[in-house]
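Predict structure. Input: Putative manganese efflux pump MntP, 186 residues.
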Amino acid sequence: MDTTVIVGEVVTLFIMAFALGMDAFSIGLGMGLIRLRLRQILYIGVTIGIFHMWMPLAGIIIGRFLSDQFGTIATIIGGVLLLLLGIQMMISSFKKDEEPMITPVGFGLFVFALSVSLDSFSVGLSLGIYKVHPIVAISIFGLVSMLLTWAGLLLGRRVQEWLGKYSEALGGCILFAFGIKLLLPF
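Output follows.
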């Protein structure tokens, strides 16, 4: 294979990974507005990176056999999950107790990572149709999304220090808005 073709494919994959990772950054920014320790931020970034690897891989594998209909379904599921996470965070911010209703730990982290990476599945479907190199694609997607998630979480953590108790409501609004954006593309 020609070197320029390989470089072109890698550059294209980095651009796609950056576009996909921006939702992880945005959602990380919203989730970073709740009180998180640095260790939690590390785990969240790694988990989202892993999800951004296996979701497109599943999409690539399935994309070689199925139609583009799954891409739409994955986007709808991701949007609904983000709406629910946003609503839970907004409700939690108005409660008297200090613990947020949903936290990116355990099952909450699984739901969070899944909602962020569902669009990667739909991208994987299209990449499967074009027979992209799966190991290169998922490695780039995982790395870029992990770095962008960390950036969003750390920035959100800084903003949380400024906003205090209202930061969780703002984070919920961000997640809710992003869920609406997935459901109503405009």
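The chain has one domain: 3-183.
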